[in-house]
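Still learning. Show one?

>
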Amino acid sequence: MMSRDGFGCSEYQRSGFGCFSRTIFALWAVHILVFQPVDGLRPLRERARSWGDEWLFVRKDKSDLGPFSEWNITGTYRGSWSFLDSKNNSSRFPDFRNSNGNSIIELISTPTKISGVHYVQGVVIFHDVIGNEHDVSGVQIKVEGVYIWPFRQLRMVANSGKGGDYEQEVDSILSNPYHLVFQESPQDKMWKRSHSPIYEMEKHCNIEIAAQISLLSSGQNGNGERDHYHIEGLMESPAVDDDGDCFSPLALNATSVNIEIYYNKAVNYTLMVTFVSFLQVLLLIRQMEHSNTQSGAAKVSILMLGQQAIMDAYLCLLHLTAGILVESLFNAFATAAFFKFVVFSIFEMRYLLAIWKANRPMNNGEGWETMRRELSVLYSRFYGILLGGMFLMYELHRFMRPIIFLMYSFWIPQIVTNVIRDSRKPLHIYYILGITITRLAIPLYVFGCPHNFMRIQPDKTWCICLGVFTFLQVAILLLQHYFGSRWFIPRQILPEKYSYYRRVDQNGNHTTDCVICMTAIDVSRPNDCMITPCDHFFHSGCLQRWMDIKMECPTCRRLLPPA
């Protein structure tokens, strides 16, 4: 952060006209407030509905000021706005349709060399202002002005924001967890630049704010909390020309917010994500041990695992981006992003490669060039789908909840694979239940927790639907695990399945020794003898244990159908 002098000027600004203009602005404000208090604290343009002096300007006696400890009003204020006339009577900007809504005020107060005078800059954000197909309902106005401590008065005007150090200050104001999910996308910014009335107002309107600051609670009681302030004021917007006001006067009411609460909530969230990622690593290791053979890995759907790996890659990028936007929380979000990176780049990609190799047993001996070529196809498809999904979500970011709902259908490919291949117990029970619960943790927190740090309104219906949809998939997988992969399909439509217990000619000349255990086979007992399609005989237990490792005939290496 650049060093500043007593007037709040940075080193960059001291050499130019900006610091001089700030000094003149502060001196002018003091002259108006001290020597001409009645006329100066009214809105800059006389109007019939301006505040009366008895309401706006309440000069404090010295006995009311208490100990001379200037208030630091820097912080975030949350409140509401409303038209004094119950609606917008101006015809200049009829898109201001709503009569009231929520507002957020961000202020940075810098003491000047003049005692009791602070230079203030910040942002006023109005929500629920405009209704249109782009759903751009927020108006953001950059302001600057002065705060006169002895009179508790705040006077601000709109700042055009011409870049430089002021733009950096405004960006730093909005880079806290309170505004993390309210960052506008480039598409919204471009649309607002060409359609939103706020840009027209900056060209044709003077925006003036006059407010009174009051202390709600003091942080000097030793509990570590900061002072809480309340802002109550009026915003007017007289036009530059004589065509009338840009909009009717607005009443503002806002109370300071303890940002430390949101920082603590954000840190607790990253701890939850880190713990969930650690559990997912343990579950993946358990599943890899469960299917550590070629036959076991071939039963696992590569689409199921690939979909989960893409989800973890998105979460890694999302948390890393959040850490970059909120510098004070970079370490916490970077830790969560690192664990997500470990999950998808090391464990899930390694498991993907094992499944891919298990599904191509005939290609393992064809040389390194063939293997490298097919590996490049696998990775190019994975990262192509990853980048394509990012572009798709960027274009359809307003439909994020349906997209998340679709992404949580990751068990469906495994259900379909079980039916097609008639697989037996491809996934461990702990892996199915554990992955389901851990993957539901983040969306249920974001869209279901009423006090999440991103301040997203809870949607209980959506959360219930997501949980029911996910556990319905889990129920089908568990039933396939215990009753067979095709338990819910009628026998009439099932394809013909090869029977390893088919009848044989007792008088035929068949080899009666099992090449697996090298002992004799009693062909007269059908349940103890399994016959492969290539007419080789084995003990039932021996061949079943062999098929758990390889789906090849132990004698001729021919591929075997599922049992």
